[in-house]
Amino acid sequence: MLWAAPMGGFVILWIIHASESDRVKIFSGNSNRPLAEKMCECIGVPLGRCSVSSFPDGETFVKIEENVRGEDVFVVQSSSPPTNHNLMELFIMMDALRRASASRITAVLPFYGYARQDRKDQPRVPITAKLVANLLVAAGANRVLTMDLHAQQIQGFFDIPVDHLYAAPVIYDYLKSKNLENLVVVSPDVGGLKMAYAYHQVLNSELAIVAKRRRSATEVESMAIIGDVQVQDKNVLLVDDLTETAGTLCSAASLLRKAGAKSIYACVSHAILGEIGIERLRKSNIDELITTDTVLRPAIEGVNITTLSVAGILGEAIKRIENNLSVSSLFEFKGARTS
Predict the structure, then answer these.
(1) SS3 79
(2) pTM reported for the whole predicted model
């Protein structure tokens, strides 16, 4: 809204925002623009106008095509493959917004890449998850919004606020619609036990763990089912945060099928499937792979994949951040916490 005030022969125009939400602007890089568009639809704001392109030598060029001075800006960009290119897009976009005098910049990473490199587990290796955190802050991020981190302690790598969301509420609603009886929730490895336990609570199911041995970055051997649970003639739900080569999921599914599982569903928040993973899933014992749209993925033939949208959760979190409301209440549903 404009308000004019005469002053010494001049007219001063004051711009008054009708509401706090008028100052929210959402921009998207090229990694997952469809998700950003869905988020904007959910909260009723247009997607910000910007150009993100590449020079012939591969350098990224960004131009913000609307005024962002004093605005609360959210930049949506998953660090999915090509990981390094998408991260550079995000850094350059935030630098452009910072130099355009945005009041606050929130980096929205539905999928946080490099999260598996969160510790020194052998000599002379980097902690790349921490490096990415430093680069996000250096590029201009005042806040980070992400979903289903591979390791929750990555939040401690930041000295700025981090809002960590979970896809579980969306996946839970879908699973309830399937009316699966005699359900056993299984973690395909010990590291995923906390997530599996959360699903076990809200689904009122039994719980088990598969012990595995990793032979290489792409080869996994599942050895035994841990827990006083029988999977014979039962529906099994494998739960994990991400899959790339699908080695852990397919190996666990093979072991569970040999143990007599009636049906096997796999539930992962981030399905970053390469050629190896797709081929393994085609030959696997998994009846359905349930995932989300945190990463942009083309249609895959020969694999039963159900993709659920997390745009509503991310959009609601943006509204709450802008209005200084609680975000942690998004973690609580059906009488339990997903965290």
Answers:
(1) coil
(2) 0.88
* 8 Å CB contact between 117 and 129: yes
Beta bridge partner(s), residue 306: 290
CATH (residue range 168-308): 3.40.50.2020
User: With DSSP H G I counted as helix, E B as strand and the rest as coil, what are the percentages for the chain, rounded to 5?
Assistant: 35, 30, 35
3-state secondary structure of 147: strand
**pLDDT digit string (tens) for 77-113?**
999 999 999 999 999 999 999 999 999 999 999 999 9
Strand partners, 332: 337
**Known catalytic residues?**
212
- The dihedrals phi and psi of 32, each to the nearest 5 degrees, come to -155, 60
Helix (H) or strand (E) holding 292: strand 288-292
**What are the phi and psi torsion angles at 155 (to 5°)?**
-55, -30
Of 293, 273, 318, nearest to 143 (Cα)? 318
Architecture of domain 19-166+312-333: 3-Layer(aba) Sandwich (3.40)
**Rounded Cα distance, 128 and 232, in Å:** 42
